[in-house]
Every structure is written in structure tokens, then in C-alpha cells.
Specification:
Keywords: Membrane, Transmembrane, Transmembrane helix. The chain is mostly helical and 116 residues long. It folds into two domains: 62 residues; 54 residues. The chain contains six helices and no strands. Helix 1 packs across helix 2. The model has no long low-confidence stretch (mean pLDDT 78).
Length: 116
Amino acid sequence: MMGSIVTLNPELGIKMWHFDIASSEDFNDPKSKNRSLILDELRLFAIREFFIGASLFAAAYFGNHKTLAAMCLLGVPVVTIDGIVQRRQAPKADWWVHFALAPVFAGLGVASWRQQ
């Protein structure tokens, strides 16, 4: 869900993550090259999120448990790195939410792998 929202409105993504750049003068200048670069990079991030979610849904929907398991287990480092980056950039924000997803992904991955 976040991927589609940030694709359409990348400024919301910057503000949601509580990065310091959201309040800087350079970011708030519509003609800034840095602002444009940041928003384009966020769009890339959003597309990544969208396709990860769609892939997980497809694997679960079509009943291929091994694929779902592998995707969930490979998602653990993704959410962990996301949490580390957010903690470094915005230590007062909700960075811990990412670390809460890691055991959920790991548990779902292990449970799906054991399915016959």
C-alpha cells in the first residue's frame, strides 16, 4: 500500500519517515535539484515496495508455499535495513516498526516452508 501512495505523492513519503530533509529550505524549494533527486529516488523505492507486495500476494494466492517462504525470508533483511536507515536518519521516528516486521516475515516464511 505504501508503494502506491508514495509513487503518487513522494513528498508524503519524506514527511512520513520524519527525515530532517523534509524541513530543510532546499527541499521546500520546488526548483531545487536535490529535491527532484530525492523525490525520484523515493519513487524508485515506492515501486520496489509495490512489486514486493504484489509478489508476496501472488505467491500466497496461487498456493506456491515454497515461493512464499523464500520471499518472506528474503524480506527479513529488507525490513531490517529499512529500520537501520530510518533510525540513523530520524532517530525519534517510528523506526522500530520495521524491526517488528522482521519476525513476522521470518515466522511466515518458516511456516510456509514447512507446508506440503
